[in-house]
Amino acid sequence: MKPPHTRETFAALANHLRGENKRVVFTNGVFDILHVGHLRYLQQARSLGDALLVGVNADASVRRLKGDSRPVNGENERAELLAALRCVDGVCVFGEDTPVELIRAVRPDIHAKGGDYKNADVLPETPVVRALGGEVVILPLVPDRSTSRIIALLEGEKAA
To answer: Which residues pair with 139 in a beta bridge?
Structure first.
């Protein structure tokens, strides 16, 4: 398995891609239990440009954001799964609760977010993306496909 990028090698990859006149798309998330909603979202994000770079929340960040029972899968496994997808060109684990610092390093042309965010203006990273000359694009969610839903279904089965 190829380890995920460090922040420095991730930024260097983005610079290399831009040097080849490629549009760099960035997205981020937990991607805890990879499902078809994630896959379709990542494929849509990739279609916005020439390369897709993905930031993955570190385990400690996930616990702060989603509670002590998460993540189900560790950061290295989540990064490995994402890196194996054909639509993903690079993966980096980040420890902050927002991707702002990673975005500053990558300087994406497009920052894609899932449709659980209705308005890009509420995202803490939007001002940074725009200040760097990038664009924020909200992509639609795949209905009834979420890690939280999968966990709830599994917990329901345990209770039955």
So the answer is: 114
Strands 135-139 and 90-94: unpaired
The pLDDT tens digits of the residues spanning 132-160 come to 999 999 998 766 666 566 556 567 766 54
Domains and CATH numbers, the chain: 7-159 (3.40.50.620)
Tell me the per-residue pLDDT of 113-129, one tens digit each, with 9 for 90 and over.
987 778 899 999 999 99
Helix or strand (DSSP H, E) at 28: strand 24-29
Angle at the Cα of 35 (from 44 to 84), degrees rounded to 5? 70
How many other CB atoms are found less than 10 A from the CB of residue 14? Answer: 24
Torsional sign, CA 34, 64, 158, 155: negative
For the question of whether the overall pTM of this predicted structure is more than 0.85, the answer is: yes
Peptide bond into 108 cis (omega under 30): no
